Amino acid sequence: MAVRKPGLIALFDVDGTLSAPRKVATPKMLEFMQQLRKVVTVGVVGGSDLSKISEQLGKTVTEDYDYVFSENGLVAYKDGKLIGTQSLKTFLGEEKLKSNFSIIKLIKKIGLNKTFFNNSYRGTFIEFRSGMINVSPIGRNCSQEERDEFEKYDKVHNIRSKMVSVLREKFAHLNLTFSIGGQISFDVFPQGWDKTYCLRYLDEFDEIHFFGDKTYKGGNDHEIYESERTVGHPVQKKQTK
Fold first, then answer.
1. Average pLDDT estimate for 184-201
2. Please, how many CA atoms are within 13 Å of residue 50, restricted to the half-sphere of its CB?
3. Is residue 213 annotated as involved in ligand binding?
4. Which InterPro entries does the UniProt record give (predicted)?
5. Can you say whether the dihedral through the CA atoms of 158, 88, 16, 210 is positive or negative?
6. Which of 18, 21, 41, 197 is 20 to 30 A from 57, comparing alpha carbons?
7. Which residues are catalytic?
8. Topology of the domain covering 8-74+194-234
9. Has domain 88-190 been given CATH number 3.40.50.2300?
10. 8-74+194-234 and 88-190 agree in CATH topology
11. Is 229 a known ligand-binding residue?
């Protein structure tokens, strides 16, 4: 029987690493992760809330992995038990959170051209999570086909990057981080609440290997990938012909 290597954890991003963005992980990937868990401690860290991560990795995700960090670790589980939470509302206060009015105006100003998606947006542009705000220029209710199309459009027109630049300047006094992740959105949270937040729960590990796809500056894996506490491994999307 295999013996786990002590003091080492393999920590994985979800979207774009363990599964395609917002899609269910393949049976082959899930089986691989369970086999890996037999020899090392395994954790997952995603920007999404637990319900979305559960849709991708399974309803028993908190039992299937040693550590599960949703919302960058602001909601943390170990061995199936909740070990920590952090609230954006408590941290910033109600009045500061109400400043989201300009985001809607910005979506309309920078947004998609008139021909894109027949000028039809898919609602839920701003999603309040426990520890962050998620902003989607196209709206989170779009179909998978529209997700894929927006991702291609965004790579050319830099919709999310332009919005982030404006918001970073406007809300500089709040010391917020703006992090692009997935296909259609970006996250907003206090500085230090990126994925390195989860590392506070991993002090017992001398060796932390992190695997993620958005490791470039501005991507939501960048800070933890570059952290002195981790050994970073970039994951590249498989190219299809």
1. 92
2. 19
3. yes
4. HAD-like_sf (IPR036412), HAD-SF_hydro_IIB (IPR006379), HAD_sf (IPR023214), PMM (IPR005002), PMM_cap (IPR043169)
5. positive
6. 197
7. 13, 15
8. Rossmann fold (3.40.50)
9. no
10. no
11. no
